[in-house]
Specification:
alpha/beta; Rossmann fold; 5-stranded parallel beta sheet
Length: 430
Amino acid sequence: MLYYNINRPSHRVPLIEAVMKSASEDGALYMPEKIPVLDASFFEHLTEMTLKEIAFSVTEAVFGEDIPARELRNIIDIALNFDIPLVKLRSDLYVLELFHGPTYAFKDVGARFLAGMLCYFAANINTEIKVLVATSGDTGGAVANAFADKKNIKVVILYPSGRVSSIQEQQLTKAGENILALEIEGDFDDCQRLVKQAFADKDLNEEIVLTSANSINFARLFPQSIYYFHAFAQLKRLGQSVTFSVPSGNFGNLTAGLIAKRMGLPAAKFIASTNINRSVPLYLESGKFVPHPSYQTISNAMDVGNPSNFRRILDLYGNDIEKIRADISGFWFTDEQTRQAMKELYKTYSYVADPHTVVAYLGLKEYMKNNSCTGIFLATAHPGKFPEEVEKTLDKQVTLPVSHKTTSYSHHRKMAADYRLLREILKSSF
């Protein structure tokens, strides 16, 4: 299958190029030339299938022309070696726990799948691959873990100074010798801008093999579609639709859900739940997209004022605002509302959630005021990744199930948001 440039649809490339380059020379993202609809037999047997079986069916439909089934199963076996349970809070309210992977965040799914795919494509390339990623928190840790000690792969992670949790920072700075973490003096949008500049730098990309592990890379984003099908399978309610509330920052997670719907997932509605970085909810209200600088919040991984994947959403719907509104509702919430809802979740359901998950809960709660539905909100991180905020709000100690794995080796630098400095680092052996 070919992948087209969303700014220039006539420009199409094979999967290996879309994955290895992440974005086109003009900075535009890639999308597959077709999104296949899964066979009726898949849905007939969905409730009987394991997570890995679902993962193979979903990814084989898109990647099967380019990756042999044996290799694809191997990638899945390594990537999805943890559970993704659906937890019932009441008869119409569920939470999908995406934090049972090695870094306790949903990004483990896409990052580990991408690592496997890059290793597959790089097997016959006798050169070093450099992976560049911007993170507002969880992406960096997941990528560092997934790519640690991978042969012929080096990773550079950019994160905003003072805007990630202490555990998130440990995960990104102490993963392995082939992982370099750059603490940027700025916000996430500054990090993302530097990444975009690197991929738009033609001379640099002729000199080194550079790719991204952000959700701008379709091979990082698309595997997240898997757990929407898995969630529906666990409901065991074939013939009924469901509403998903997605805590949204760069909008890769929501985009993956929308792709799942195109593939046949019976999702009635998606809720774009954000903090005060509300450019997309405001677009859904006004029809005008106005990006803004990132505002710092307690749900830091969602502090994105100009989400990259919003362009993919526009492309999916042909820039038709009414079609977008038919599938997506948007709500945004303050830190104070988030803290109050964290208390409410704990008091009502004895459920402890991190701030990002709580924002998703709030979005679903708001939607359900006027709409009857079976709702699932996505828990994108374990509350133990944000102990300071959760413990302060709930007056309850929270810890990770198992101490997160880091090395004593720290590969970390502080840097101004200056592309010239990043360029020199990428050209070096660091």
